[in-house]
Design brief:
The protein has helices at 18-30, 48-52, 65-72, 86-102, 136-151, 172-183, 203-217, 241-251, 262-280, 287-290, 295-302, 310-316, 324-331; strands at 9-13, 33-38, 55-59, 77-80, 107-111, 122-124, 157-163, 165-167, 200-202, 228-233, 305-307. It is an alpha/beta fold. It has a domain at 9-171 and 199-238 and 305-325: NAD(P)-binding Rossmann-like Domain (Rossmann fold, 3-Layer(aba) Sandwich), CATH 3.40.50.
Length: 336
């Protein structure tokens, strides 16, 4: 049951981003009064559909404390979906929660990431400590989670969502860039190096979870929520990365990917460094060579971790439903 209506005010930060724009559209469609938080508030042609859908553009520079106070003022729920540089992330999150505290805004949904678990393998619950050395992005997300947890006390409520690999229409990293690599013929089946589990979640599933979380926070149901809860957010299937690559290739009408052994993967990585420099210098060619899988990507593609979703079901009554076949059908059309 939809508990959001025109009396519910929701601020969404990062409203022009992949996740943020999808959240804005869905919440506006549900009837909520949505503030689409953006750094530059001058409307562009792309913003017109948001405004027609019931969302209102809102100046929301995460580095501007006064502007943030004005953006959050009177909001029932804040959905923090903005993502900038790793170095600035924690400071911006601190500025946001301080603005919310100053304006007595009591409900926050923070978009974190499964990256906070580091190199965990096997079944990963929300209580799992990080394993291995965290990269800059994961460490920044961890710092933001700590800030959110510290803010969430007394009457305040925070729901931290840890999405997996978010794909769907508009996903640059996991759809558009992968499709480009496949079409250029510089991507393959990684063999044993690609047999890790792809913790996919389709954007529509993630948006539905955010809608449900917003409904709980904006209603009497919030009384039954803990001050701060962290929830994994992954889809109902976790195919191998090789399986994802092959299915994406089929969805865009590309030939079946060829098998690559470890030596070929290593060779392509060695060639990638000078190719990237070549491209940065503005010289022609070497586009495909520069798009080889990075060592960090290869580590991800071999990791065998699955992420428990019981907590989202128990706390919010949410279970993901969009599997890989349906997710790709919603995302891309074959090119023939």
């Amino acid at each position: 049951m939809n508990l959001l209506n025109s009396s519910t005010i929701v601020l969404v930060t990062g409203a022009r981003g992949f996740i943020g724009s999808a959240v804005v559209a869905a919440l506006a469609h549900s009837g909520a009064r949505v503030r689409a938080g953006v750094r530059q508030c001058a409307p562009s042609p792309a913003d017109a559909s948001e405004m027609r859908g019931g969302a209102r553009l809102c100046a929301c520079d995460l580095d501007d404390a006064a502007q943030l106070r004005a953006a959050v003022k009177g909001a029932d729920v804040v959905v923090h979906a903005a993502y900038g540089s790793d170095a600035a992330m924690a400071a911006q999150c601190r500025t946001l929660v301080e603005a919310m505290a100053a304006e007595r805004v009591k409900n926050l949904i923070y978009l974190s990431s499964i990256a906070v678990y580091g190199d965990c393998s096997g079944l990963v619950t929300e209580a799992a400590p990080p394993q291995g050395r965290l990269g800059a992005y994961a460490a920044a997300k961890r710092d933001c989670e700590d800030l959110v947890a510290g803010w969430a006390r007394d009457e305040r409520r925070a729901i931290i969502l840890r999405p997996g690999i978010v794909y769907g229409t508009g996903s640059y990293f996991w759809v558009d860039k992968m499709a480009q690599r496949i079409r250029l013929g510089v991507w393959g089946d990684f063999g044993l190096a690609g047999q890790g589990f792809a913790a996919l979640v389709h954007i529509d599933d993630l948006v539905e979870l955010i809608e449900i979380a917003s409904q709980h926070l904006a209603s009497g149901a919030r009384a039954g929520l803990p001050n701060c809860a962290a929830l994994n957010a992954v889809g109902p299937e976790a195919p191998s990365w090789n399986g994802y690559f092959q299915n994406l290739a089929a969805a865009i009408g590309a030939p079946r990917l060829s098998y690559w052994n470890k030596s070929e993967i290593t060779l392509r990585q060695l060639v990638a460094a000078p190719a990237k420099l070549w491209r940065r210098l503005g010289l022609p060619g070497a586009q495909g060579a520069a798009l080889a899988a990075t060592p960090g990507e290869c580590a991800l593609f071999s990791r065998k971790a699955t992420y428990a979703m019981d907590k989202a079901a128990d706390l919010l009554g949410f279970s993901p439903r969009i599997g890989l076949a349906e997710g790709l059908a919603r995302t891309v059309a074959p090119k023939v």
